[in-house]
Amino acid sequence: MSLRLATFNVENLLTRFDFTGFRNQLRQDRVIKLFQVSSEGVYQQLEQARVIAATDDTRQMTALAIADADADILCLQEIDNMAALQAFEYGYLFRMVGNGYRQKYLVEGNDSRGIDVAVLMREETRDGQKIELREVRSHAMTTYRDLDLFDEELALTNRIDDKIFKRDCLELDLLIGGRPFSLYVVHFKSMGNPRDELDGRQSTMPIRRAEARAVRRIIEDSFGAGHTGKKSFAICGDMNDYQERVDVIGRRGAGYRFEHHDEAESALDVFSHDGFAENVVRRRPALDRWTLYHARGPQEQWLCQLDYLWLSPALAAHNAGRLPEIIRSGQPYRTIFPPGQEVERYPRTGWDRPKASDHCPVVMTLDLP
Predict the structure, then answer these.
(1) Which of 14, 101, 188, 269 is buried deepest, with most CB atoms within 10 A?
(2) Domain Endonuclease/exonuclease/phosphatase: where (predicted)?
C-alpha cells in the first residue's frame, strides 16, 4: 500500500484585489509604475484588469505542477479561503487536468494578509486504499504562554500572550487503508526586514524556532514524549528557513558556478538535531535539493530549500532508499538551474512571470508501516 504526499506553496491564491498600491508605492505592481495614473478609480480598474489577465496563465501552470505531483494528499500554502480553493480545484484541477480532489480542509489562521494553509485529499489512494479523516484540529489560537515557549529573544518582538503560529499548524488525524497517519501542515513566519544589525533571516529566526518547537510539542503531547519515533507522522509546508544553501556565483552572459554550504543555525534544527524527524529531501544530491531561487542582483543569489516533508523516524526508516521528487517545470526562466537539472517549462512560462509559483512542489511516495 502506497501513499503519495506532497506540499506546495502556490503563492497568493486570492479572491480579492489589493488596491493599496495607489497610496503605497511599495505595494504597487511594477507594470503600473510605468504609467502615470492620477485617479484612484482608474488605478483600481487597471489593477483589476492586470490581475485578471495574469491569473489564468498563472493558475494553469499551478494546476499543471499539481498534476505532475499527482499526490493523494496535497498540503497547500497561501490559500485565501475555502471559496478560492473550491474555485481553483473545480475550474483548474478538475476541469483542466481532469482529476480533482473531493476532500478539502482549511481553517482561517492568523496571517494579516489572510493567506492560510489547506489540505486537499482524494477519497482513495492510487492503489485503492480509503483515505479517512478522523479529526482535524487548528492550533492557530495557541499562545506562547500555553506551551511555555516565551523567552528573551521573543520578547524583543512579541508578547507572551501572542499566538505562536503566524498562520497555523493544521493537524489531521487520518486512516490510510485502515492504518493511522498524522499530518501537520504549516507555513512558518516569513523572513522579514533587517533589524538590530541582523539580516531578515536572523531577525525573524526566533519566531520560526518557536513555531518549530510548538509543532514538536504538539506531536509529543499527542503521542507522548519519547514515544514519537515509532509513530507515523509527517510535517509538511513552507518553513521559510533552510539548513543549507547553494550560492549561485556569476552573471548572465559570463556563466555561473555553484557552491554548497551548510548554515551555522536554522530554526529547523529543532526537528533534526536529535533525530526527531527526517528531512527526506536531503537524500537527494547536495546541489539538487532546492525548492526556491532567491535573487537580489548578482551579489545575492542562491538556491535553497524552503518546502519540506519531514517524516517520523519509523516512517522514514520504512521508506529507506526512496527519494522525494521536486517538480520544477513551473519555475520562471530567470531561475538558474545547476548543470544537468534543466527541465521543460510549461507553455507560456515567462522570464519572471507567469509561473506556477516561485516555490516547487515536493512529493514522495510512501509505504505506511
Answers:
(1) 188
(2) 65-359
